[in-house]
Write a structure and sequence with these properties.
This protein is α/β, with parallel strands linked by helices. The protein contains 13 helices and eight strands. It folds into two domains: 220 residues, no CATH class; 103 residues, Spore Coat Polysaccharide Biosynthesis Protein SpsA, Chain A (Alpha-Beta Complex).
Length: 414
Amino acid sequence: MLFNMPFTLAILKIAPMLALLAILLSSIVIDILTLFIVFIGRTYMKLAGIKRKQPHLDQKEKRVSIIIPAYNEENNIYQAIYNAFNQTLPPKQVIVINDNSTDKTLRECLRAQAKFKNLRIISQRENKGKAFNVSEVLKKIPLEKITIVLDADTFLTKRYIEKIVKPFANKRVVIATGTSLPIKHGGLLGRLIFHGSIFNYKFFCFRKRAQSYRNAVSVVTGDSGAYRTSFLKGVGGLPLGTQTEDMDVTWMALEQGYCVIYQQDAIARSKDAATLKGHWKQLTRWYAGGVQCLLKHNIKLFQAKSLLFTTLIPSYVDSFLYSVSLLFFGGFFFFYPAISLAFFTADLLFTVIAILYLGWRGLIFLPHVYVIKFIWSLAWLYATFKTLFQYIFGKHYWGGTWKRDSFYKENANP
């Protein structure tokens, strides 16, 4: 009954109208229009000889503290500390929180401390998790004007701090987010994940630039975000209750009327999962965290109208329509060959154009991109509906520790 001729004809009739409507209301179209309007404005100012006066930070306002929470990071922590200090604008202090690691993380921290005198090490006797530990440091240790929260497997480029602090010359800016890209993996599967994912990372950075112009950035780079310390202290540190505290605190800032800026040329590299199991866990945590934040913030999001109406609503509609379409037309191609072929032709054309814009050499990895697209779409649907069901059946708190193997394990309410 589902695949009979009348049903197929009905789909073919309404599909073009639905597709056109989805495109016109798409978050991608909103982002492209934003960038186009900014381009036109800047071109006019350049031709008219209009120069905008750019505010500058004084030396005191440029001072940075870096907090690095670490749990079982013996292979990464020394390099993360080294890169954090090896900057054109060095931090005044780096604080590492060894969160009851069971490996040689502490030994590597002590090795780094012998080289860098402004490194402070705090060892926890109980595993508490990233958000809790960062918040405790904010309460108990005097910090500089700007605080960078750095993951222990993320490595800053040499000019990262110099670049990331620039937006803070605007007093309304309380968070700056840079460009974080994954490090290339070894092995066949690792390379497939990397080459497939790097397209999505770069494309999201393209869109984040547009979101930044609208003051509607959906999430900062949680592995290397920079915060005005007074703001972070004012909200009690990184918030608990979701698995994406970086997204949670971003929305809090926008709801309070502050600015969150994307600084494109502040670049960091991080180690992402190199196995399908690890990649799946990472994706489902991100996607579930987004839904958790929606459920947590709910009507408060109306205080950040640009975020809600130009980023979140269009993005979630896009994600739902695209994920369902990709999986449906991929799975039922032989039942609906005409409309499936039209969908995949249009998607292929868009993907090729995006790859050409982001870096034409990526075309060789087009098959990798499509493998990852299917995985990401399935992960989005799984994490979204799983989280919604959890909420319906009474779970309203998703705070956890580093032990993410128990991703969906119930946690006691605080």
